[in-house]
Predict the 3D structure of the following.
Amino acid sequence: MARNVDSAFGAADIVSCEYQFDDSKGWTPKFDCVLPDGEVVRVKYGDHNGEVFAEVAATRLLAALGFGADHVSVVRAVHCFGCPPLPHPRWGELWNRLFRARAGYREFDVAVVERPHVGTPVVSAGHKGWGWNELEVVAPARGGAARAEVDALRLMAVFLAHWDNKPDNQRLVCLDLPKQVEDGCARPFAYIQDTGASFGPRRLDVESWRRITVWSDASSCRVSLASMPYEGGTFPEGVISDGGRRFLAERLGRLSRSQIRALFAGARVSAAPELSEASHDPEAWADAFLDRVRQIAEAGPCP
C-alpha cells in the first residue's frame, strides 16, 4: 500500500505561511497557504467547522488500514500572512484581494494543515476525481485491484458513512511518475481525498452513526448509502463479496479499544462545540466503532 509523506507538524506547532488564493469548490472554511520552503498546503479552520475534527479521525484511520489518505495534521495555530478576515474561495478573488492583511498575519487557532497523498494527480477531461459507480470498471486482469480489495474500499466508505462522495472528493494519483502523466501509469492509486463528511449525516455524530447499520441486508451482504444526504451520491447500492468483507474485518480487528479511543481523542472531539454531549466522549466513539466492526465480522458468508 502507498504511504503518505511524513509530516513535520505536531499539535504544539505554530505554522507560518503566505496566503494563496485558490478557486476550489466547496463551502468549508479553508484556504491554501505557502510554507517558507515553497510547499503549498491546505488549511481548514474554525471550531464550528466539523471537517476540522472529522477529517483528522477519518484520514488517520484510512492510512492505518492501508487505504491511503491525505496527511492531516492538528496544529496549535496557523499564522497566515496576507490572509483576509474570512479566507475562503467562495467569497471570490476580489474579496480576498481587497481585504487581505497588508502587514503582519491573521491567526487561526483551531485549524488543521493538509498535505496531499504522494503521487502525481491523474486528470481526465479536467477532472481529478472519480465516482464510486466507476469502480465497476476496475479490471484485475489489466493490473487493477482484486475484487476483494475494491469491495473492502466500498465497505470502508459505508463503515465511515462517507456521504459527500461526489467525484471531487476522491482522487486518482500515479505513484511512479514525479511530474506529468502522459504515457500511462504503471502504479495508479485511488483513494478518498475529502473525508470531512464522515461518521454520521451531520459529521461526527456518534448517536446517528451508531443508528446507521453497516448493512442494508446483512444476510446478503448488501450495502447502501441511500439513507444519507444526497441519497448516496455516486455510491450505488450493491453486494460486497466475502473476500472484501473478510479483508476489511481482518484489518479493523487489529485495532484495540485503546487505539480507537485515542483516534477520536486525537481528533479533539471533546473540544468541538457543535457536537452532542455523547459525541464529546471518545469512549462512546469506541463503543460505536467496535459495534460496526462486529457487524462486519459476523455477517456472511457473502456471495
Remarks:
- The domain at 120-298 is CATH 1.10.1070 (Phosphatidylinositol 3-kinase Catalytic Subunit; Chain A, Domain 5).
- The first strand starts at residue 14 and ends at 20.
- Residues 65 and 251 are 6 Å apart (CA to CA).
- The mean pLDDT is 90.
